[in-house]
Write a structure and sequence with these properties.
By secondary structure, this protein is an alpha/beta fold. Helices cover 40% and strands 14% of the residues. The structure holds zinc ion.
Length: 212
C-alpha cells in the first residue's frame, strides 16, 4: 500500500478489503494511523500463513525502489542469504555441564580426557547446574546453559554431554542422594533439547573423584 506521505507499507492479511479498510479507519497499524489514507498498490496470494510471513519479510527488506519494481511487475531477483560455512575445529570435543566450583574443574577435565579420549573439554559452568536443570524453575538460567551446550555440540561436534554434581556444593547444598536425583532429571531436561549427543551424569565425591 502507498501511504499518504508517499511511503510504502507491506503487510499480510486473509482479507485484503477488510485490512485496507482497517488501515483507513485508523485501526490497522500504528504506522498507517498517521499516514492515512492508504492506497492499495499490489498483492500476492500465498498458499499459507508461513509462506506469507516469509514473503512479507523478504519484501520489507527491499528498498522502496525495488518494492515499486515488484508493484510494476518488473523482475526483482532476491538473492538467498548465503549460509556461513562453519568449520569444525580439529580434535575431539566433549561437553561438561559442571559447577563453577574451582575444586571440580581439573577432576572433570582429567576424567573426561581419560575415560572418553577427549582432546578438549568444553566446560559450561554454573553454580549447581544439576539443580538448575533438574529442579530449578528459572527458565533463563536453563536457556543460558542450553545455548552453551548447543554451541559445543553443533560447532565443536561434541558427541558427549556430561552433567556433574559434587560434594559440598554451594550452588546445590543438597546431599548426594538428592543431588543424584537432580542429575537424573537434569539429563531429562537435556534430552528434551534433542541434541543427538550421548548424555551422562556423574557424581564427584569428597575426595574429588568422579563416580558414575
Ligand atoms: Zn558446586
Amino acid at each position: 500500500m502507498k501511504c499518504s506521505d508517499g511511503t510504502l507499507y507491506t503487510g499480510i492479511t486473509s482479507s485484503l478489503e477488510r485490512r485496507i479498510s482497517e488501515h483507513n479507519r485508523g485501526i490497522g497499524s500504528r504506522y498507517t494511523y498517521t499516514r492515512r489514507p492508504v492506497k492499495y498498490l499490489y498483492s500476492e496470494r500465498q498458499p499459507d500463513r508461513s509462506c506469507a510471513t516469509r514473503r512479507e519479510r523478504e519484501i520489507k527488506k527491499l528498498s522502496p525502489k525495488r518494492k515499486m519494481d515488484i508493484v510494476c511487475g518488473r523482475k526483482v531477483v532476491i538473492k538467498p542469504r548465503k549460509e556461513k560455512e562453519v568449520k569444525k575445529p580439529y580434535g575431539k570435543f566433549v561437553t561438561a555441564v559442571n559447577c563453577m566450583d574451582g575444586r571440580v574443574q581439573q577432576p572433570v577435565i582429567n576424567f573426561l580426557k581419560g575415560k572418553y579420549g577427549a582432546d578438549y573439554v568444553d566446560m559450561i559452568t554454573a553454580p549447581g547446574p544439576n539443580r538448575i536443570l533438574g529442579a530449578g524453575k528459572n527458565k533463563r538460567k536453563k536457556t543460558a546453559i542450553r545455548k552453551c551446550v548447543e554451541i559445543s555440540v553443533k560447532k565443536h561436534g561434541s558427541e558427549l554431554v556430561a552433567v556433574f554434581g559434587h560434594y559440598d556444593c554451594a550452588g546445590n547444598p543438597a546431599g548426594e542422594k538428592l543431588q543424584r536425583r537432580h542429575l537424573k532429571s537434569a539429563l531429562k531436561t537435556i534430552r528434551s533439547w534433542k541434541l543427538g549427543a550421548v548424555l551422562k551424569a556423574f557424581w564427584i565425591d569428597r575426595n574429588w573423584q568422579v563416580r558414575e
